Structures are given as C-alpha cells and as structure tokens.
Amino acid sequence: MTPAKNQQRTERREPAPPGTQDEVRETALTLSKRDVARLEKTARKAAPRKTREPGFLRRLLAEGAQNRLTPGDTGWNRPGGGPAGFTESPFEVQGSAVQVCGFWPFISGAGLPLVGAPLGRHLMRNTLVTGDPISWFTAGIISNPSAFVLGQPGLGKTSLVHRIIDACSAWGVVPMVLADSRPDYVPHIQALGGQVITFSPGQGHLNPLDLGPLVASLTLIEDEKARGIALSEMASRRRSLMEGIAAMMLGRALRPHESTCLAVAITALDPDLQHAPVLGELIDFIRSRPEILRTNVLAYDNDEEYDQRLQELLDALINLGPSGTYGDLFSRPSDSHITPGVPVVFDISGVNENDSVLVAAVQSLCWNLGSATVSAEQHLAAAGKRRRKTYLLVMDELWRILRASDDMVHFIDTITRLNRGRGIGQIMITHTMNDLKLSKDHLTATAWGFVERSAMVFLGGLAPSEMGNLEEVFALSGKEKDLMTDWTGEAVIDPKTHRAGLRPGAGRFILKVGKSPGTPFMTNLTDLELQISDTNRAWDMARP
Questions:
Q1: Degrees, nearest 5: CA angle 406-409-412
Q2: Which residue has the higher pLDDT, 290 or 107?
Q3: Quick check: 446 and 465 in contact, CB under 8 A?
Q4: Which is it for strands 174-180 and 344-347: parallel, antiparallel or unpaired?
Q5: Of 22, 221, 293, 377, which is least surrounded by CB within 10 A?
Q6: Beta carbons of 423 and 378 less than 8 angstroms apart
Q7: Beta strands of 408-472 (E only): which ranges?
Q8: Among candidate residues 367, 330, 373, 328, the one with its CA nearest the CA of residue 206
Q9: What is the pTM of this model?
C-alpha cells in the first residue's frame, strides 16, 4: 500500500477524538511500533475507571449506619434499640361478610368514639379509649348521665374517677364529692381551687334543717307558680331528710302520725324556708303540745295520749340533739354552706366508721344538701337569676349507707332517678355486687337497679363468685370473665428489692355500655395525678 493511498483513505474517515484507540490505530499507519505502544499506554491511563458495586458487607454497614438515625424495617439498630431479627407477617382472616363483618370491607373495625375524658389505652389494640357520663350523654351516645364503678379494693377505682374529674372540670363541669370518708378527694378538690367542708364530731356542725342560703333566695323568683313549685320541692326535701334520719335512730320506718307530726312541726317553724330552726327548737316545739300538732296527732285535750303517741319520735330527735350520742354535731347552725358553681368535697373522715348509723346519717345529709343546692340553682337559672351549670356527683363507698338502713336505698334511688333533669351526672362506686344485696329481695332489686340504670359501667378485678351476679345484669363473654378474674391476682415480688410491683389488675377496667361487648383498657396516670390520687397516704407516712 503506497503512502498516497493511505493519505486518501485517512481523509475519507471522520477525525477520532484525541486519546482514543481509533486515533492510535490511524496514527499507527505512519508511526513506528514503539510510538504506537507508548500512545496505547497513555490512552489506557486516560480512560475512566468502572465503578464497582459495593459488596454485601459494605452494603450492610451502610444500612446499619442509616438505622442509627432512623428506624428500619426491623426497628432501631443501635444499643438499646432492640432490632427485631424476624418480622411476623399479619394474620389473614377469611370468611363471609356476616362472620367477619368487623373486618370486611375494612381491615379493622370501628372503635369507640373519641368523646369524653381520656381514660387510657385499649388492652388489645393500644388505641385511645375515651368517655365519661356527661360528655357521652350530651353527645347522645348514652341516654342517662350516670356511671357505676365495680372492683376489688386497691385496683384503681378512685384513680379512674380522679381522671374523669380532671377532664370534666377542665371543660366547665363542677365536681361534687359529698361524702369523702377516707379522704381520697380532698387533695384533688384543693388543687382545683374548690371548697373543702370538714364535718365530723368535734369538727364542724351541720344543721339538717338548713338547706343553705341559695334555697332561701328562691323567694326572689318573680313568677308565682314557679316560686311555689321550687319552695314546695325544697320543703319536701327537708321533711324527707328529717324522716330518714329519725328512722335511722329508731331502727324502723316512722309511723304515719309520727311522719305527719314531724312535717307539720317543721313547716310551722319555718314556712318560707327563710330562717331554718335548729334541732333543739324543733324538740321544744313538739314538747309544747301546740294545738296544730294535737289536731294532727288526734290527741285533742289529752296530754298523756299526746306524749304517748310521740314519745318514740321525741326519743329519736333527742338522741340527735345536744344531749344525745352525737353532741352538738346536728344541733347547732351550720358552719359552712356549699358555694354554687365551685368544686366541693365534704370531708367526713373523722366520723367513727364503726357507727354505721352515724355514717349513713352524715352521708345522706351531705348528699341531700348537695342535691338541694344544685336543684335550687336550676330553679333560679330557669327564672333568669343565675347561670345554669352542669355538676358531676361522686358517690363513693356506697355500701356504707346501704348497710346502715334499709330505707336509705329508696333515698338513693330517688336521687339517681331525678338527677338527669337537674343537670347532674353521677358516678357511684362500690366493691362488688354483693354490696348491693340487702336484707329483703325487693330492696336488693332496687339497689341492683342503680347498676342497671347506669349507662356506663366500669368493671375492674372481681372474684369468680361475682360472675353469676354480673351475668344477671350484663351479657358477659368468657373472655371478659377471664380478664376480670385474672386481674384479682397479687403482685409479683422483685427478688432484688424484695418489694412487690403493681397488681395485674391495677388500673385495668372493662367499659360496658348495656349488653354490648366490653372495651378493656388500662389507665396510665401522670405524676401529678399519682400524687393527688394516692389512697395509701397513711401507709406512706408510716413506711421507714
């Protein structure tokens, strides 16, 4: 091949980029072998190197470094992070639309409405469980603003109520704890800036004939008919309260002429509820044998017959008076009155627990005063004299008053039936259904009606023997019964500290609404709630 032909072919090719193999080959037509080798070596050095894919170890280290900043599919890959080595796939459910209606066409069924106080976390789904009797009633979820709490001692019944009080008070509801016998609610009401009324022998006086200054202001209602209705209700409340307390002292119900005498005497001493008499004045009035009482007792001119017919009633009233067992506890003017619209608690922890009659009398008096104050405020609000408020009545240790007198079950029954119309929600608390078993079957049926009429029932740890009683009121599944009986177990002891932890059922409840399946949840308290809801303060102070 001649140089002329080589030159002609070179001109027909497009020029190659410098430093490439094509340039080396074109130049090789006119260069020596040594020059060609040198140019090829230079081209290899200038060519870009291929990037290598990282190996398995390098990729694993890179993923581990990334997981220290953000969790991966198996969790946090760092010390204390606890990464999972195996992720279990979700279970599959197959069935008809009727059998798995809670899953189809959705992957999970609907939960409880997020309305009311945050109670805790669902034990199965870990979702938030909310609810309280007032919020659910105003939202139309339940038809009666009432709740009942059942559970063995030490499992968190009071703490659950504290949580409900916290949330409701923040929303403008006024809590009223009208008989705190331990006391468990005094620190909480004080923290809310409320009113604490201490009432026990040697600590305060409470006149059962005085329903408070708000009741006396009912005469300001301009409408004559509305004023008459309000005053008649308060007068009836006062008569019923005195009859109940006198019956407790006698250990029996009042006879018709005794009840008539008591009602006429109270009305004659204070017809307009403006100047409440004390117990001594009532006793002296009956002893004076006025003509109005002679006529109603059917002892017109016979003093001996008059005294004979009213002797037992006078004995009961004298026992309540300054010469009786309780001194001036009920016979002097009241030291404090309930301030409407302010959280209030009656501290009755100084009352002798062994005197069941006194405990019941004090509780019924406190509950009646609170209910009368709220009812009077509702009458004034209807007349435009005050602003209407909503109250939450807490009735703890219900078994005490039921054990004192059979008649008290009717008193509580009246309160629970009428509170809805007065703007009062209520929470009743006791240990077991056996607390509601009274001496007679019809009284037991009335007491069980407290639970049946409660739209919300919180069931804590209960003994297996209780399941039969509960099944008569609720439809309990086997799983629900197993949970409640398991929660009654004792706490496990730590071998290092030699102290027991929390019991299995501490803070755990099943929320039942009617006969629907229950919602199991656990209440987790904040540090502040733990301080104000501690029911073992006496033991904490005695612990070395």
A1: 150
A2: 290
A3: no
A4: parallel
A5: 22
A6: yes
A7: 424-430, 456-459
A8: 330
A9: 0.71
Backbone angles phi, psi at 457, to 5 degrees: -130, 125
Query: Could you report the per-residue pLDDT of 96-128, keeping only the tens digit for each?
Result: 666 666 665 554 444 567 889 999 999 888 888
Q: Where are the alpha helices (DSSP H) in 383-407?
A: 398-404
* Token pair 């004390």 in the structure block, residue: 278
Residue 172: C-alpha distances to residues 41, 372, 392, 418 (Å): 89, 20, 10, 22
- Structure tokens that stand for 478 in this block: 């086997």
Q: Are 317 and 283 in contact (CB under 8 A)?
A: yes
Torsion of CA 369, 373, 374, 375, to 10 degrees: 100
Which range in 278-287, 445-454, 461-470 is most confidently predicted, on average pLDDT? 278-287
Q: Cα separation of 15 and 40, whole Å?
A: 17
Please choose, from the candidates 540, 539, 535, the residue with its C-alpha nearest in 3D space to the C-alpha of residue 159.
535
Name the strands in the sheet holding 174-180, side by side, starting at the edge strand that comes first in the sequence. Answer: 128-130, 118-122, 519-522, 508-512, 456-459, 146-150, 424-430, 391-395, 174-180, 344-347, 195-198
Q: How many CA atoms lie within 13 A of 494 on its CB side?
A: 8
- CA geometry: angle at 342 spanning 336 and 344, to 5°? 55
User: Which of 366, 262, 239 lies closest to 317, judged by CA?
Assistant: 262
Return the SS3 of 128.
strand
For residues 349 and 353, give the distance between their C-alpha atoms in angstroms, rounded to a whole number: 9
CB 393 within 8 Å of CB 147: no
